Amino acid sequence: MNQTMISWGEAELDALRSSVMAEMSPFRFTHTAAVEDMTARLCALYCPEKTMLLRAAALLHDLTKEKKAPEQEALCEQLGIALTPTDRMSPKTHHAKTAAALIPVRYPGFADDELVAAVRYHTTGRAGMTLSEKLIYLADYIDESRTFPDCVTLRTCFWGADPESMSMQERLSLLDDVIILSFDMTIRALLSEGAPISPDTVSARSSLLCDRAKRK
Ligand SMILES: [Fe+2]
Ligand SMILES: [Fe+2]
Asked: Which ligand has the nearest atom to the CA of 65?
């Protein structure tokens, strides 16, 4: 993997979209296309120069989402991804790891480090998330195809704050605030289910809380 000079344009994104569409259900593709749209909207606000890079990340983020747990575990083994006992209790997080690991194999033209990291951490987050990681994480949570109440709340919270009218500093604070809120929601839901919480999610939340405290 490497830091590529972005070498793709609309034609390559169209081809990538057709390719991922062919390997997922219509439901998953609707979500994937909606994440691409939301990513483009977020890039327009935060980093127009990363639009092509992150639209490709959006198209690839759920590449392996529809594989069932045993298939995911087999794929992890095949790709050399070590799973801790805690990881094995959270099979929904495997797809971020397997999708990230498959990009250089299946789509080497898109194997940019920043893109791959955004895919890798789109489910759990991690301490010290980059702007690209935050944008893909949030686009996945609030894309327009999502009707789950927490997603609607978060989408309203972000766009209702009118980020277009904000300074970049205020906009970046809003991004962190909304992501912290998403972690609160995710952690609360996992607690109510008695499910394990990814250490990356806990670290991601703490790291953003520290950043917010430093800004005050
Ligand atoms: Fe996902
Ligand atoms: Fe997704």
From this structure: 1
Residue 116 lies in a domain: yes
Closest CA to 122 of 156, 144, 97, 145: 97
Q: How many CA atoms lie within 13 A of 3 on its CB side?
A: 1
CATH code for position 175: 1.10.3210.10
Segment 48-106, tens digit of pLDDT: 999 999 999 999 999 999 999 999 999 999 999 999 988 898 999 999 999 999 999 99
User: Among 57, 21, 45, 192, which Cα is nearest to 132's?
Assistant: 57
d(CA 61, ligand 2 centre) in Å: 6
Domain hosting 149: range is 10-215
- Prediction pTM value: 0.96
Give tens-digit pLDDT for 129-165.
999 999 999 999 999 999 999 999 999 999 999 999 9
Assigned domain for 4 exists: no
* Ion ligand 2: residues, Cβ under 5 Å: 62, 140
User: How many structural domains compose the chain?
Assistant: 1
